[in-house]
Amino acid sequence: xxxxxxxxxxxxxxxxxxxxxxxxxxxxxxxxxxxxxxxxxxxxxxxxxxxxxxxxxxxxxxxxxxxxxxxxxxxxxxxxxxxxxxxxxxxxxxxxxxxxxxxxxxxxxxxxxxxxxxxxxxxxxxxxxxxxxxxxxxxxxxxxxxxxxxxxxxxxxxxxxxxxxxxxxxxxxxxxxxxxxxxxxxxxxxxxxxxxxxxxxxxxxxxxxxxxxxxxxxxxxxxxxxxxxxxxxxxxxxxxxxxxxxxxxxxxxxxxxxxxxxxxxxxxxxxxxxxxxxxxxxxxxxxxxxxxxxxxxxxxxxxxxxxxxxxxxxxxxxxxxxxxxxxxxxxxxxxxxxxxxxxxxxxxxxxxxxxxxxxxxxx
Length: 363
Known about the structure:
Mean pLDDT: 89
């Protein structure tokens, strides 16, 4: 068997095309395309495919071996004929589930990286706009100082605010470089030469709220990998005890150890079920909380938008000053960023929950 496995490994390494992308290219992608590209260029996927292949080879060898008959102690033969097939079947299924889990986690990671890039890009735009506002206020103070309507300390404070905001802009630019680099790394781009332009927006997507999460709870044995693995362990231990009982009796140490193994497996299965139930309830409550935060932020941003428009109307009619309009615009920019940040947090939490329950819950 080792020889066959070595040949499989050698074949994969020899004939697998090199992943990654040509150097110096520019990729214009939306979020969905970025996620697909991350999956396409995922090197772990090859290792997972190899692992599945190995497990399938072991399963086939087990079937061939059993078809020719097994010699040895009766209990060992019974285990090999009746218990081993369940174990190798479980190993194959777990290898497939591991691949699916790794891909889903990669999709989630790529989605988070895209959100970070879009949010940071918006943050930079708004910080630059706020810098422009502060500079306008600084110029207005210069005029007021010449007119005797302001004092020198006011101008010094204004200059200090300009310098601080310029520093804020620099920090956000560095942050944007960092999140862009992280996205390129997840997409398996050339970090130095390739350029990824993400062309998308952060949008609020509603969800189907349920009165309970029982429908996900009932799907746990099929969807949760740990629960499946523990369920199969119970099946294997139960079959082992069944075979042991044909040759040994209660009171024998080997029998009691096998029985103890079955009870332990049952307890571990119940613990796994309980843990995923709690995770689902907690994550769903967190999701609803993030959704509420996003809705509040959207409502607040809409209110501030109206306030800003009202300030503009008043200014056009000589009922408000330019400073009033600039202050209103500054509050509008802050509210818009808070809205995008809240929507981003909610969107990621929604994707995280969907990954947990393996179901799209968009409305």
